[in-house]
From TrEMBL:
Entry GO terms, CC: peroxisomal membrane
Pfam family, one: Tim17
Protein name (Swiss-Prot/TrEMBL): PXMP4 protein
Superkingdom classification of source: Eukaryota
InterPro entries: Pmp4 (IPR019531)
Length: 213
């Protein structure tokens, strides 16, 4: 038993020594990026899938658990693949040109986005829309910072909030099919299901009555 413990400690020391080698840093960063992408994707998707599935999806308990597991796996896998691809291409470009330039990041991410997130499915669609909203905010702030557009005299956020909510409710009421299914489900729960009730049970306790009264 002692010999096995010594072998394990020697293996751990060798692994730690390898991880401290600067010449392997780029390759090891790609591997850890894959790990972090997988973990982060699972942490983000699992709670979201859990809530959305049990709130809005029908089916047996087993089917709901399967749906949650599939969504979590897809999100985790895609983020892991993307980070691995992005960091790998970034390291390759830097090695080929001898230095890192801003365009390397853009090109590597474009290729990774095409390869990993190019399939138009619900998981990828949610991720892309999440990023798009952040990009628009970021580009707006960058444009002000660089002087391309003047600094607003008043906070534009109230106007933005009004336009966003006005547009999304107009789309929901008159062009619902253009909205993502999960958003349709959320809005149906909020704005349509609140129009229907039969007694106190489905007015305050439940959203919808399940019996045949």
């Amino acid at each position: 038993m002692a010999g096995g413990g010594d072998s394990l400690r020697a293996l751990l020391r060798a692994a730690n020594a390898l991880l401290r080698q600067r010449r392997y840093h780029a390759a090891l960063a790609v591997i850890k990026g894959f790990r972090n992408g997988a973990v982060y994707g699972a942490k983000i998707r699992a709670p979201h899938a859990l809530v959305m599935t049990f709130l809005f999806k029908s089916g047996s308990f087993r089917e709901k658990l399967k749906s949650i597991a599939q969504a979590t796996y897809a999100h985790s896998r895609n983020l892991a693949y993307f980070v691995f691809t992005y960091k790998g291409l970034l390291a390759a470009q830097s090695r080929l040109q001898g230095k890192k330039i801003p365009f390397h990041s853009f090109l590597a991410a474009c290729i990774g986005g095409w390869l990993v997130f190019g399939d138009n499915n619900p998981i990828n669609s949610q991720i892309i829309m999440y990023l798009l909203s952040r990009i628009l905010f970021g580009l707006s702030r960058l444009a002000v910072e660089k002087g391309y557009i003047p600094q607003p005299r008043q906070d534009p956020f109230p106007l933005l909030a009004a336009l966003v909510w006005g547009t999304v409710l107009w789309l929901f009421e008159y062009h619902r099919e253009t909205l993502q299914p999960s958003l349709q489900a959320s809005m149906t729960y909020l704005y349509e299901d609140s129009e229907v009730w039969h007694d106190l049970s489905d007015f305050l306790v439940y959203n919808k009555r399940t019996d045949s009264k």
